């Protein structure tokens, strides 16, 4: 088990690959539970958010690509001279503050501001969303999806916002913005898709386990969604560096992400004026114990990411072996409660995949 985790996270000394990577197994479906978690939403009458929320067009995981981007496979690849030059150029840009920072949609910035200050009304949020056709249709789709649907279908944006709740609506706005940002450029589209899938999955897992860890679910969602936001800036920067049509191998992106994504994450989160907690987590989550201001949030990000990574590559059969993840200790989760939490994780992970495939 330890060896498996070490291989995934590049811990220890890099060594030649001697065995094929484990492939994702067909996820076994856990029985769907009806228990709802406590929702901390501000809108009276909003339905409690379901534990698993439909993914927004996230693709199925490409486990080989994931292993290269986020495991240690990139260590085993020898970069060409041209790739080394790109890596050096991107690293210089990160270190000198010359990153290419995608612009966060004005809708997202406004939604973050409104909801964090608690000054927004349902009408304010509806007006904000109504200007964005893609966002409006996503809101209605999710509000009427099997997981949220009530006795009466939502036909207006107002109904949809009330059904989801103000803060879940904010999460949805951020998700749609992030997807639009990542997928608008066809260059490196397969990698952008995997970054998108991973952030969605981590967000949903974080939200699902949040009540068991004593964390607010919607805050957990944003932590999962945005903790690796540095990868978005790095993708843009690599796209800018590589103006020709020469193919970029995933191992180069894996190396760039490994070396620079936290530093890039801090920059982009600050540029987007995200809450200080999210800036801090984006800048330091792999060694969460070093994040003095937001250690628990950083540990949550790392936990959600690890759970997605292990299940994506090893399948849900790996879940039982994750009870000893040290992040659980941060939240003082007793050992006897961990199997139940991991069951929730498998259920969320599987539901997200099934929804996505549909
Ligand atoms: Fe990360
Ligand atoms: Fe991550």
Summed up, the helix count is 17
Give a short account of the largest sheet: none
Helix fraction by DSSP (H/I, runs of at least 4):
55-70%
Instruction: State the name of the first-level CATH class of the domain at 2-10 and 37-93 and 189-357.
Output: Mainly Alpha
Tell me, rounded to a whole number, the average pLDDT: 79
The radius of gyration is 20 Å
The kinds of small molecule bound in this structure are: fe (ii) ion
Extended strand count: 0
- Give helix and strand order, one letter per element, not per position: HHHHHHHHHHHHHHHHH
Q: In the CATH hierarchy, what is the architecture of the domain at 2-10 and 37-93 and 189-357 at level 2?
A: Orthogonal Bundle
Describe, in short, the structure shown.
The protein is mostly helical. It has a domain at 2-10 and 37-93 and 189-357: Hypothetical protein af1432, CATH 1.10.3210.
Structure notes:
The chain is mainly α. The chain has a domain at 2-10 and 37-93 and 189-357: Hypothetical protein af1432. The chain is built from 17 helices and no strands. Helix 6 crosses helix 8 (157-164).
Keywords:
358 residues, binds fe (ii) ion
């Amino acid at each position: 088990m330890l060896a498996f985790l070490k291989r995934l996270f590049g811990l220890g000394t890099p060594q030649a690959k001697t065995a094929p990577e484990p492939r994702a197994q067909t996820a076994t479906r856990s029985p769907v539970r009806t228990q709802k978690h406590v929702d901390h939403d501000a809108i009276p009458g909003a339905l409690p958010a379901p534990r698993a929320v439909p993914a927004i067009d996230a693709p199925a995981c490409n486990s080989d690509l994931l292993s290269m981007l986020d495991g240690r496979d990139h260590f085993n690849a020898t970069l060409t001279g041209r790739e080394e030059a790109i890596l050096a150029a991107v690293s210089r840009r990160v270190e000198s503050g010359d990153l290419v920072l995608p612009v966060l949609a004005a809708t997202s910035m406004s939604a973050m501001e409104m909801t964090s200050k608690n000054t927004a009304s349902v009408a304010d949020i509806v007006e904000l969303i109504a200007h964005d056709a893609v966002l409006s249709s996503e809101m209605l789709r999710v509000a009427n999806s099997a997981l949220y649907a009530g006795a009466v279908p939502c036909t207006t944006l107002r109904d949809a916002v009330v059904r989801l709740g103000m803060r879940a609506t904010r999460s949805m706005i951020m998700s749609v913005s992030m997807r639009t940002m990542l997928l608008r450029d066809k260059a490196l589209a397969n990698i952008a898709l995997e970054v998108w899938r991973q952030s969605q999955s981590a967000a949903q897992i974080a939200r699902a386990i949040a009540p068991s860890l004593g964390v607010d679910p919607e805050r957990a969602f944003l932590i999962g969604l945005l903790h690796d936001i540095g990868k978005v800036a790095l993708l843009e920067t690599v796209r800018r560096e590589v103006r020709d049509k020469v193919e970029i191998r995933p191992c180069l992106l894996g190396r760039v992400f490994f070396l620079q994504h936290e530093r890039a994450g801090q920059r982009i989160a600050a540029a987007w004026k995200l809450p200080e907690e999210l800036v801090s987590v984006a800048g330091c989550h792999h060694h969460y114990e070093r994040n003095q201001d937001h250690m628990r949030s950083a540990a949550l990000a790392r936990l959600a990411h690890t759970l997605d990574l292990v299940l994506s590559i090893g399948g849900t059969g790996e879940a039982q072996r994750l009870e000893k993840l040290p992040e659980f200790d941060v939240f003082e989760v007793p050992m006897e409660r961990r199997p139940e939490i991991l069951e929730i994780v498998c259920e969320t992970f599987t539901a997200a995949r099934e929804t996505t495939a549909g």
